[in-house]
Structures are given as structure tokens and as C-alpha cells.
Amino acid sequence: MKHPLAERFDGAAEILAEIDARVPDTRDYSAETRATIDAYHPKRLRLVVTAIIEETATAKTLRLERADRFELPPFLAGQYVNVFIDGTSRPFAISSSPSRLTHYDLTVRRVPGGRVSNLLVDTAEIGQVLTTTGPMGTFHHNPLFHGNDVVFLAGGSGVAPAMSMIREIADLGLDRAFHLIYGSRDASDIIFGAELDEIAATHPGIDVDHVIAEPAAGWTGATGFLTAETIDRLVGELDGRMVYVCGPQALYPYALGQLTALGHPRKRIRFEANGAPSDPTAQSHWPAGIDPAQEVTVTVGNTSFRTPRNRPLLNALEDNGIRPEAACRSGECSLCRVRILKGEVHNAEEAKLRLSDARFDYTHSCVAYPITDVELGL
């Protein structure tokens, strides 16, 4: 539409004629933008298991590829994808290098009572199709903020994100110093053992030290736990280096205590989110006199069901066929947010709630526990 003031400007007639002569732009910019977003940040991926690598007696790596063999969305070393299976989901760190987008490697270890990890270890087979999210998570290396000289404390399958970081350094020849201290129960429990030792031997910037809790005869490396003394002996002065920690939940408070004893500042320690607390009642703000095993009623719309107080709301919802969006299952990503319309919940210490959540009664259902009968808005 011609502006009513256009003709008052010199040369307006020629400009208006040129505009009228233009070929109409019929591109669907909205669809192009949507396609770009979906390519780099897909909500869901359907991936085929193309290889299963036996890492140890209790751990396997599942190699996942697109059925069409196209490249997968890029990710940052240390990130994870959430795997949907058996009516629930669990996040698994990508252990392959971000420089190789033909596949994602997910390294899964058997754990006592592990519903999804044990299912994958026992039943995954080549050709099986798994549905996952795209890559996500904040536990990744950012050289701008974390520097190029880092230390990584890993326990068990917590070595998976470290392996992705190490493989990226090796693949791209990055000028980065990386010292992995990897705690395992015994030598046979070490995941990626041969590859880690080979990379450390051929890449001067990468150091790997194994710490074995129950050493067999002949073991000459470090033993025991990841104590302050062991860290200091293997790494030397931390000098403000960024320290990553990933492993079983029990490792986190222990590692924090050891690093604090060394005088390392909390702001230079990064913990990977690792699930809901094993015992929410052990947290200091669990309400006194509340029986964790007693059942309460949860209502969502026209659906009501009973669940014990010590079961995360997200798990209870999934048990009853209600599946909110979820990813980290550790209180961080906020995708499983639900609104508490009535009743009271216990928010675990892991819950990274926003200031507005408390004001408007939202909670992260993966680390929230119903204390009273509750009504939820999804």
C-alpha cells in the first residue's frame, strides 16, 4: 500500500514504480525457520541402534544413528539426550565426540533397581528404534568461562561425558589440558580403560589417573576413594581450575567436601545433575512427623490416584499414564513443571526453581513429593 506522504519526496515516482515491478516474495519464511530449528533443536529423534559395544561386565555402549544416515544435531561435549522407553524416560550422557555427528554413543551401566538402564543393558538389540530428545544440558565445557585447563572427577558411568570431552580434544587437536581422575570399584569395572590409556599416552595435554577402591594383587595405581589427599597428589595445586564432577549421587557431597578441604572455590566446581534424591526424607527440610510411606491422593483434571509421599510426582504421574514433558529428571531443566492448585509438596534440594515458581505455585515434578493430597495443573 502506497503511503499518503510518498509522493512528496523527490524521486518518489521512480521508487514506487521499481517497487511495483518487483517479483513478489513467496518464500515461506516461517516454515524455513521452523525447519532450521527442528534440524538443530529437535523435540524428538527416532534413532536406530546400529552397534552394541560391551565395555565391562556391567556396562554397554549403544551406538545410535538416524535411519536415513543423515548427520545428527550438533551437541556440546558433556550434554545428554533423554531416552523414552517403557512408559518413562531417563537421560544418558553422549560419550562420543561432537566432531562425529554420524552417531551418538550412549554408555549405559547396570545399577541396582535401575528401571531403564537395566532394561537397555539386558534387552537392547541392533535394529531397535529408540525415541530420544535432541541434545541438551548445561554440563559441558565452555572455554570462555571454564578455561582451557580443567580437571574431571568421575565415578562409574560418570566417565561418559568426560569421554566425550576427551575424544573431542583428541579428534580436533585442541590446545586444552584435561586431567581425568576416574574412580572405579575394581580394575575390571573401568569403562573405556584401554582407549583412555591410549589417548593419554599419545596426547600430551590429556592425563588419566585411575583410582581403584578394591584393588586386586598387582595393581600399582592409586587406591581408595577420591580424597583430598589423592586429588592433591595426582593433580597438584588446583589453582582455580574448573573441576567437573560426575558419577553416583553419593560422590557429589563427598567430592564437594574434599575439594573444599583443598580450598577450592565452589564457583569453580561443576556437578552434573544426576536424578532425584535417593531418600528425600534425609534432607533437612523434610517436614517433621510426616510418614514418607503413607499414601496421599493426587488429582489431575478428572483423574485421581494414590501414591506414597516419598515417590516423585513425575514417576507417580507416569505410573498412571500421565506423561508430562521431561528430560533431566534431576530438577534442572524445568520441562516437567506442574502447578500445585491445592495441597503441599516437598521440593527437594535438587530443584532449581525460579523466583516466579514459588509465587505462582509451580514445582518441578521430577523432584517434588506430595506431602498432602494435591491437585495439579499440567
- SSE order: HHEEEEEHEHEHEHEEHEHEEEHEEHEEE
Tell me the strand order in the biggest sheet.
Answer: 4-3-6-1-2-5
Shape: globular
Number of helices: 10
Distance between the termini: 45 Å
Structural class from helices and strands?
alpha/beta
What share of the residues does DSSP label as strand, in percent? 25-35%
- Taking pLDDT < 50 over at least 5 consecutive residues as the criterion, the unreliable ranges are none
Share of helix, binned: 10-25%
Q: What does the largest sheet look like?
A: 6 strands, antiparallel
Radius of gyration: 25 Å
List keywords for this structure.
single chain, 378 residues, alpha/beta, 6-stranded antiparallel β-sheet, 6-stranded parallel β-sheet, 10 helices, 24% helix
Describe the 3D structure.
The protein is of the alpha/beta class and 378 residues long. The strands form 4 sheets. Strands 4-3-6-1-2-5 form a 6-stranded antiparallel beta sheet. Strand 11, helix 8 and strand 12 form a beta-alpha-beta unit. The longest helix is centred in the middle third of the chain and has 14 residues. It is globular, with a radius of gyration of 25 Å. The model has no long low-confidence stretch (mean pLDDT 93).
